[in-house]
Design a protein that fits this description.
The protein has 138 residues and is mainly alpha-helical. Helices cover 56% and strands 9% of the residues. The protein has 8 helices and 2 strands.
C-alpha cells in the first residue's frame, strides 16, 4: 500500500506526520490528482485526518502502520522488544511511533502474550471498520 508507506516513511525520516497538502502534491506530481479518494476508500481505521500543531496531517492507525511496507519488520521489532532484546536507536524511534498508535502495546500482559506478532495482527485487523471516515480530526 504505497501511500501508507509514504506516510510512514515521512514520519520516520522527519519525526512528524506528513501534511495533507504535501501528500496531495507528491501524488499530483505522479499524475494522481485525487489521492484523498484512495485514502478514503481505505477508511479511517487505517488512515485519518489529524490536526498536529496547527498542521493538517494524515496519520496511520496501527493497522495502517502494519499495512505499510515496514509492517513485517514492525511485528518482529515488537517481538524483540517484548523479549527484552536490544534494539537500535532507529528501531527505538520506530517503536515509539508504533506505541503512540496503540497504547495497549505498552501493557506487560500484552507483551507476554504467546505469539505476540499474531496477536497484534489479529487485534489490528479487529479494529478495521470500512465505514469509519478518514475525516473528523481525531
Amino acid at each position: 500500500m504505497e501511500p501508507l508507506s509514504l506516510i510512514w516513511t515521512h514520519l520516520l525520516e522527519r519525526g512528524e506526520w506528513i501534511a495533507r497538502r504535501d501528500l496531495h502534491d507528491a501524488y499530483a506530481r505522479r499524475g494522481v490528482h485525487d489521492i484523498r479518494s484512495a485514502l478514503a476508500h481505505l477508511g479511517g481505521s487505517i488512515v485519518f485526518d489529524h490536526r498536529d500543531g496547527g498542521r493538517d496531517v494524515y496519520r496511520l492507525t496501527l493497522l495502517g502502520i502494519l499495512l505499510a511496507a515496514d509492517g513485517p519488520d514492525i511485528e518482529l521489532l515488537l517481538v524483540r522488544h517484548a523479549g527484552g532484546l536490544s534494539i537500535t536507536p532507529a528501531e527505538a524511534a520506530m517503536l515509539k511511533h508504533v506505541l503512540d498508535a496503540a497504547d495497549w502495546l505498552r501493557d506487560p500482559a500484552v507483551l507476554a502474550t504467546p505469539d505476540l506478532a499474531a496477536y497484534v495482527a489479529a487485534r489490528a485487523l479487529d479494529s478495521y471498520n470500512p465505514e469509519t471516515p478518514i475525516d473528523g480530526m481525531r
